[in-house]
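Give me C-alpha cells for this 383-residue protein.
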Amino acid sequence: MTRPTAHHRLVWGTFDTGKPRVRMLVEALRLDDPDLPVCHRNPWQGIEDKSQLRGLRARLAVLLRWLLAYPALILAYLRAPAHQVVVVPYPGNLDVLVLWPFARLRGAKICWDMFISLYDTAVIDRGLLRPGGIAARLLYASEWLATRAADQVLLDTRAHADYVGALYRLPAAQLGAFWVGAEQNLFRRAATPPPVEPLRVLFYGQFIPLHGLDTIVEAIARIERDPAAPPLHFTIVGTGQEQPRIDALIARLGLRSVERIEWVDYARLPALIEQSAICLGVFAPDGKAARVIPNKVFQILAVSRPLVTMDGPAIREIAQPGPAVRLVPPGNPAALADALTDLARDLCQPGGAAAIHAAAQAAMPIVDVHTVRDQFCQATEPM
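Here you go.
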C-alpha cells in the first residue's frame, strides 16, 4: 500500500470561508504546497455578521451544524497525511481545543490564526456581553485556554498581537502577525477618475462600533454647513449592529449629500471603489480600531484610491501620511471634515488628481497573496 505523501502543514477546522482573511491564508499556503491537505466543515455558510444572528432557532441550527462537524473533522484528521504543523484559521476558538489532544497524538504543533479576539470583539468593542458577567467570563476563559492549547497565535497586525499578548499574558515568542491583504483577482490598480464635481466619497462595511460611523456622519454634517466646502457626494454602504441608530442620525441631521445602500455584492466592490474619488477607512474614538487594519483599507490601497482613515499604530505599519493617505485623530468629526475638504480641493486643482494618483501608486503597497505567504512564513519561522 502506498503511504500518503507527508506535508509540512495541514489546514483544519470549521473556519469561515466567507472571510477574505481565511481565503487569502489558504491560498497563500497553497503557493508552497499545491496539494495542501485541508480538513474543513463550514457551519457559517451564508452568515456574514455573526452578531446579527437572530432567533433561537437560527442559533440552534448553527450550533447543531457546528457540533456535528467535529466527528467528521476528527476522523479526517486522523486519516490525513503526516505533517508537522496544523494551521487552524479564524475563528477557531473551539477548533483549537477540540484538535489539541489529536494533534499531540500525531506529534504536530498547532498554529492558530486567531485574527481577532472574540472576547475583545463581543465584550470590549461591540458591547454585546456585559463585562464581568457569566457569559463574558466564560468567553474569556475559553479563549485563554485556546491560547494555551496553540503553539503559535497569529493576529493581523503587530499592534494587535501586542494587545492580545497583554490580554492573555502570552510570551512574545508565541505571537506573530500577518496582514489581511486584498484578493488580486478582484482588487487591482485602476486609473484615476476625472475630478468631476461633486466628488464621490465612499464608505462601505459592516455597521459596527469599530468603524466610527458617528464620526463620519457628523463630519458630513459639518461639510454641508460649510458654504466654502467643495461639493461632495457620500455613498455609505452596509448594514449591521449600528444601522438603525446611524440611519436615524442621518435622517435627524437631514443630510442631503448622503446616498445609503444596504448591500453591494462583494464582486462589485472593486468597481465601486474605482468610481470614487476618495475612500474612507475607520474612525472609532479608541480601542480596537487603532490596533487593526480592516479589509477595506487593503482593498482601497490595492485599487490606489486616496484614503482618509484614523491615525494609530496599526495603520502606520503599512502607510504613512502623504498626498494620497490622510490620517486624522480618531473620533474627531472636525478633523475628518477638514481632511476631506482639503483632499477634495487638492484633487480639483489643475493636475491635482494626476499628482495624487501618482502618489498613491508610489506610496500604497499591494498586499497580495505572495506578501501574505511571506509574512506568514516569517511569523511562523520557528515552527
